[in-house]
Amino acid sequence: MTKILVVDDAAFMRMKATRLLTENGYEVVEASTGAEAVACFKREHPDAVLLDITMPDMDGLTALKEIRSIDANARVAMVTAMGQQSIVVEALKAGASDFIVKPFAPERVLNAVEKLVA
């Protein structure tokens, strides 16, 4: 089963993404901070990561760089609120494959995950 790591400091957003993904046949592991995401990535070896940009402790951009230093082929889509385009560009340069804008449409999340794991 394809494993997705969902990272967001907002429990509601994690729950929403996790429910959507599990209902569509994915195994999901969750993290609520960037540091947790890096540790979980090392431990779980997910097939793809949905990574929030704005989080306390370690932001998504820093977590992305850490994850990519662990696995240069890590497949990551950034999850961003409107108005963070400059950060999205930086994330894409740092190796993110895609980005999803919050509040997200379920089809957009599924499409991004399908592209990541293809």
The CATH architecture can be given as: 3-Layer(aba) Sandwich
- In CATH terms, the superfamily is Response regulator
Mean pLDDT figure:
93
- CATH fold category name: Rossmann fold
Number of helices: 5
Low-confidence parts: none
Q: Order of helices and strands, N to C?
A: EHEHEHEHEH
Oligomer: single chain
How many independent structural domains? 1
- Helix content estimate: 40-55%
Broad CATH class: Alpha Beta
Write the layout of secondary structure elements.
Blueprint: E1 3-7, H1 11-23, E2 27-31, H2 34-44, E3 48-52, H3 60-70, E4 76-81, H4 85-93, E5 98-102, H5 106-117
Parallel strand pairs: 1-2, 1-3, 3-4, 4-5
Helix pairs in contact: 2-3
Description:
- There is one protein chain.
- By secondary structure, the chain is α/β, with parallel strands linked by helices.
- It is built from 5 helices and 5 strands.
- It has a single domain, classed as Rossmann fold.
- Helix 2 packs parallel to helix 3.
- The protein is globular and about 30 Å long.
- The two termini are 13 Å apart.
Keyword list:
alpha/beta; single chain; Rossmann fold; globular; 118 residues
Report a brief summary of the structure:
The protein is 47% helix and 22% strand.
